[in-house]
Design brief:
By secondary structure, the protein is of the alpha+beta class. It is built from 11 helices and 21 strands. A 7-stranded mixed sheet has the order 5-4-14-15-16-13-17, with helices on both faces.
């Protein structure tokens, strides 16, 4: 049965995991939306992978992307991804994720196993109802897109250039001159969010200079204002001033190698570098995280080239990953790869007026813990719970459904951030500590690798690596706000 339609329209900027998750949730509670994606296709293949942990899978299950048998479903006809039809031979990912992650290895710098955890996935499934799986990030984005009933509301090549805030709504203007009007704008456009940039300038212009924290962005680059007195602003390009970058990462996917068996995950601990490797959908996914010579900020964070990636990879070719493989074996066997800086930061405020950010646009978490995508979908769930709860409360009070005021949206945004910011900050800190440990930054780390890790039990491993205890879910099946 179709949900009752609510008097609200959400403009979502960004058509990746955060944006499409939010679109799925809004659709299920009867809130209208449009997704504006800057690029020409949904889910391009860039070589990225994603870990779906049980708390992530739980929400995917609620929005219909996880079947009763524990498999993520993706039809083969995907907007802008005709090439994938030759890869997927069926109407789901069932066959591709049968080998979920069920055995974990920690290895020292010589590639020798110092800790093994057989049956890890089975224990996760018994405890939480879902295993852990590795898949192409592209596959998850495609699944979220295909799960939508109204795919016509997802628009590509719609790069945001301007936002106008009005008393009763917002207007988004894209590079091609198109205009979209809604009640609120949600920035799900990633680390380099243009929504956040515009929102920050709004806050400083209409509120106070310190509304967002004066040093989060550099003021050295000129900002373009347009019709600022009427609440309108064009896109601006500014640099992060406080956002640190301590590590860089080559990530990629490769054809299987002898030493990486199906259903396994591996951490290789080196001095000032580490590897994370997992097997999943007929290939292996890997990350090489390397500590920079110094922490950089703002303009000091480099933009890497293909040549930079090749040089860094060659420096690590002799790294031993296991008894059979070196990094050179994995890298030369690669399908896709990319070198990127690893920013780590949580912005102080995620909203202003009728604008809010979620996911990486609010908090950029080191990928080593596999919690970036999960944090984004939890943001979306929390926001939708608050929005939907407000309309339920209207009905319970006998009020006619009506558009919410700016003050009411501000209250919803504030509750969403309060519910999420401690958890995402904890995830961010946890990921940083995991990286510091895996890269043996402490002088005591070699002793831990030699004398502590080999004696860990599975329970002790979970205690060390567990996510924060908060549990999240959509409340869309309940009438309680």
């Amino acid at each position: 049965m179709a949900p009752e339609q609510q008097p609200c329209k959400v403009i979502i900027v960004g058509g990746s995991i955060a944006g499409l998750s939010l679109a799925n949730m809004l659709e299920r509670v009867g809130i209208d939306f449009v997704v504006l994606e800057a690029y020409k296709e949904i889910a391009p293949q860039v070589g990225a992978s994603i870990t779906i942990w049980p708390h992530f899978a739980r929400i995917l299950d609620q929005i219909g992307c996880w079947s009763n048998h524990g498999h993520l479903h993706v039809p083969i006809s995907v907007k802008g991804i005709d090439k994938l039809t030759s890869f997927w031979k069926g109407d789901s990912l069932r066959a591709l994720v049968d080998e979920y992650c069920n055995q974990a290895f920690y290895r020292n710098q010589q590639g020798e196993s110092v800790f093994e955890f057989p049956g890890m996935g089975d224990i996760l499934e018994r405890r939480h109802g879902y295993p852990a799986i590795f898949i192409d990030r592209q596959m998850l984005v495609s699944a979220l897109y295909q799960n939508l009933r109204h795919k016509d509301k997802v628009l590509v090549q719609k790069r945001l250039t301007q936002i106008e805030q009005m008393d009763d709504g917002v207007r988004a203007i894209t590079q091609d001159g198109s205009t979209y009007i809604g009640d609120i704008i949600i920035g799900a456009d990633g680390m380099h969010s243009c929504v956040r940039e515009i929102m920050h300038i709004f806050g400083r212009s209409f509120s106070s200079p310190d509304y967002f924290g004066k040093d989060e962005y550099s003021s050295k680059r000129p900002v373009i204002y347009r019709e600022i007195s009427s609440g309108s602003m064009t896109n601006c390009a500014v640099y992060f001033q406080e956002v640190p970058c301590t590590y860089k990462c080559i990530f990629g996917m490769s054809k299987p190698t002898k030493g990486i068996e199906k259903g396994t995950t591996h951490v290789v601990m080196g001095k000032n570098y580490s590897y994370g490797i997992g097997s999943g959908t007929g290939k292996i996914y890997w990350f090489l995280n390397v500590k920079n010579s110094e922490t950089t900020y703002g303009k000091g964070v480099p933009r890497y080239t293909v040549e930079d990636e090749q040089r860094l990879a060659e420096q690590h070719f002799k790294d031993r990953l296991n008894e059979y493989d070196t990094f050179e074996d994995v890298y030369r066997n690669r399908i896709k790869s990319r070198l990127t800086p690893l920013h780590e930061y949580q912005w102080k405020r995620w909203y202003f007026g009728r604008i809010m950010t979620i996911g990486d646009a609010s908090h950029k978490i080191h990928p080593i813990s596999g919690n970036g995508g999960a944090a984004a979908i939890e943001d979306a769930a929390t926001l939708v719970n608050e929005l939907h709860g407000k309309f339920i409360l209207q009905r319970k009070l006998g009020q006619a459904s009506q558009h919410l005021s700016t003050e009411e949206f501000q209250e919803i945004f504030a509750k969403t951030q309060r519910a999420q910011e401690d958890r995402s900050k904890q995830l961010l800190k946890q990921s940083t500590k995991i990286q510091q440990g895996d890269a043996m930054e402490s002088r005591f780390a070699p002793l831990a690798v030699k004398y502590i890790l080999p004696h860990l039990t599975g329970e002790a491993f979970f205690s060390l690596c567990r996510s924060p205890k908060n549990s999240f879910a959509l409340s869309i099946s309940s009438e309680d706000p």
